[in-house]
Design goal:
With about 280 residues, the protein is mostly helical. The protein is built from ten helices and two strands. The two termini are about 30 Å apart.
Length: about 280
Amino acid sequence: MNVPGFEHYLGLIALGIGVGAYGTLIGAGGGFVLMPLLLLVYPNQSADLLTSISLAVVFFNALSGSEAYALMRRIDYRSGIMFASATIPGAVLGALNTSYIPRRQFDLIFGVLLVAAAIFLSSRPRQRVTSCNASRFSRYCMARHLVDSHGTEYQYSFNYLLGMAISVVVGYVSSFLGIGGGIIHVPALSYFLGFPVHIATATSHFVLAIMALAGTVVHIATGTFAHGVHRTIALAIGVLLGAQIGARLSEKIQGRWIIRGLAIALGVVGLRILAVAW
């Protein structure tokens, strides 16, 4: 059996920097980029091993990105803790179910999800403005007011029951596919719950850190993660550096470009993984 050399791990560190920077910029954790690359680089590895590596890397990326966003004061902690608590049951179940899916079916499911997300974002270029207080579910409405480190005010309200229901689904799908869940959570927070995009990306990263940790703990408990420790360490070194870069870039890029960039990336990666799996 060939043992990966220094160059291999150096390449994983470089990959981690890119994944960390882009994933933090759009609040997606980078797993949607990392996971298909792992599928391509390690074609003979099981899906559950690769998802365990990806989820662990997403945790380190989200942890580093959350620290940067915390300094910017863009994380809605109250909402984030609520959503994170809802993702944990789904994350645990998703991590347990990955081992039951054959590799080719896993690749097809993964690719279809990415392309569907890209189409959704492309067809809805503007943020959906919701009026939670005006709806029939107004008693489940939560109003929020944040001021970031630059003095920018964000005022919005959302249906917290809908937010928690979405988070359960996000927890399962993201842990099952090893993608972190930001590609689902950021659009959901922005379009369905009315979160400002920059608050959505920051809060999503906070939720991802907790959710990815829960999924990783399950993989450790089942023994799957033991075979991916060294690769995870190399990738984690890269994402810890890249996440800081991505968080800084987010201050210079408008929210609509973040969403557009996410749509393009999802479409390209999704089509690529479908082409290989087909």
